[in-house]
Design brief:
The protein is an alpha/beta fold. The protein has 2 domains: 248 residues, EAL domain (TIM Barrel); 136 residues, Beta-Lactamase (2-Layer Sandwich), CATH 3.30.450.20. 36% of the residues lie in helices and 24% in strands. The chain contains 14 helices and 16 strands. It has an 8-stranded mixed β-barrel with strand order 2-3-5-6-7-8-9-10, surrounded by 5 helices. Strand 14 and strand 15 form a beta hairpin. Helix 3 packs across helix 5. The longest helix has 41 residues. The two termini are 51 Å apart. The relative contact order is 0.08. The N terminus is likely disordered.
Length: 428
């Protein structure tokens, strides 16, 4: 296929060297696509600066390039030069329905407001719509969050999207989310890497993305290098994905449908994997569900608590059983499985439940009370009784005295899940 698009423009940047000499760098633009999982095509491109030292031909990384520009006027000038170059080059590439992500240092964003409306004039002079610009605040320390907030509002009022980069690293944390109310949040690539090798990171990943979406932001998982990382992003319900696995940064843009087959294969693979996971988990839960219902039946006919739950506690992953009244208060003490009696951690002794402990705010109690006669299953959580990750099965029933009670059993999550321990929930 012949590329008929006009050649991209280059630019020069001159930096004051340590010994007073002037260094010249040739600047160019590369663009990395950002894909929408739902649309299976790029919906945005991140502009990435590339620099070459004119005299030696050595490639210079962006961080090194910007470190040569002292903070203040020269750093602002370099930042503006890079953004203007990206806009000019992106226009030449002819994409008319995608966002252009432009990286901005928070310090530069704040200081630059004092120097007039450069950004809007630059966009207008290049004929680029403001609403297609995503201003991406890179992760970097910045002490004056008030001025940063003013800079962000400036870009927002212009009509730009606000993006926070590298969430989960350094200063890109929940405090910055609450203060700046971004439209898009990019997950730090180190977190992306960890989700495929650490079960805890995998389970947290889905929750973090869910919280960010509830905060009103689209979530982009960046730094995806492998199929496993892509599948984790799909499983966590990410909106956007970026990384060399899909396409590296380049001077040219890929065809919109260039990765549609890849996404179809990924989604089909995820669907098949998840169906198999549900099947395995259901088969593991079957004996526990049957034993729980048997215990409930015995209790409803007036059996004593401890004998009624012995069959349940003999199953390998069962740790303890307890009863909760309709008011949310525990009835009597826990009954532990024999293998679990000596496993209590003395550091958490003060948190051990006793008769009258109030569980009315716990999801396993509320959901059981709302839907009596149905087994409820929690996501994994830390049980202070162990302490270890557990899942709780709960079942609301009518006791022999006519009161409503909830029978609960805690299961050792790691033992029950086996090789599927990375998943964050169990499904019946």
């Amino acid at each position: 296929m012949v590329d008929l698009s006009p050649p991209l423009t280059l630019d020069k940047y001159h930096s004051q060297g340590e010994l007073g000499e002037r260094d010249e760098f040739i600047l160019s633009s590369h663009f990395q696509p950002i894909y929408s999982l739902a649309h299976r095509r790029p919906v945005g491109y991140e502009g990435l600066i590339r620099a070459v030292h004119s005299a030696s031909g050595r490639r210079v990384a962006p961080l090194e390039l910007f470190s040569m520009a002292p903070r203040g006027e020269e750093r602002i000038r370099l930042d503006r030069q890079c953004r203007a170059l990206h806009v000019r080059n992106f226009q030449r590439l002819g994409s008319t329905r995608s966002w252009l992500y432009l990286n901005v240092d928070p310090q530069v964003a704040s200081e630059g407001l004092r120097d007039g409306p450069f950004f809007l004039k630059m966009l207008q002079s290049n004929g680029f719509p403001v609403h297609r610009v995503a201003v991406e605040l890179i992760e970097t320390p910045f002490e004056d969050e008030t001025h940063l907030g003013a800079a962000v509002e400036h870009y927002r009022k212009l009509g730009c999207l606000i993006v926070i980069d590298d969430f989960g690293a350094g200063y890109s944390n929940f405090d910055r989310i609450w203060r700046l109310r971004p439209d898009i949040v990019k997950i730090d690539r180190e977190m992306t890497r960890r989700v495929t090798i650490e079960p805890l990171a995998r389970r947290m990943f889905t929750g973090i993305i869910s919280v960010l979406r509830e905060a009103g932001a689209l979530v982009c998982v960046e730094g995806i290098e492998t199929e496993a990382e892509a599948l984790c992003a799909i499983d966590a319900n990410a909106d956007l994905m970026q990384g060399n696995y899909f396409a590296p940064a380049s001077e040219v843009l890929p065809a919109e449908n260039a990765r549609s087959d890849m996404f179809a294969r990924l989604i089909a693979g995820h669907r098949a994997d998840f169906a198999e996971f549900q099947k395995r988990q259901h088969s593991r839960l079957v004996p526990y569900l049957a034993a729980l219902k048997n215990a409930v039946q015995d209790l409803s006919f007036g059996a004593k608590f401890q004998p009624a739950v012995q069959g349940l506690l003999k199953l390998p992953s069962a740790q303890r059983c307890y009863l909760i009244g309709s008011d949310g208060l525990q009835i009597g003490a826990n009954v532990d499985a024999e293998r679990n009696v000596d496993s209590h951690d003395p550091r958490f002794e003060l948190m051990q439940p006793t008769e009258g402990t109030d569980w009315q705010t716990r999801p396993y109690f509320r959901r059981a009370i709302e839907t009596p006669g149905n087994v409820q299953i929690t996501r994994p959580y830390l049980s202070v009784t162990g302490p270890k990750l557990c899942v709780t099965l709960s079942f609301a029933f009518e006791a022999s005295d006519g009161s409503q009670q909830v029978l609960c059993v805690d299961l050792d999550f790691a033992e029950l899940a086996g090789k599927d321990v990375a998943y964050g929930s169990l499904h019946t």
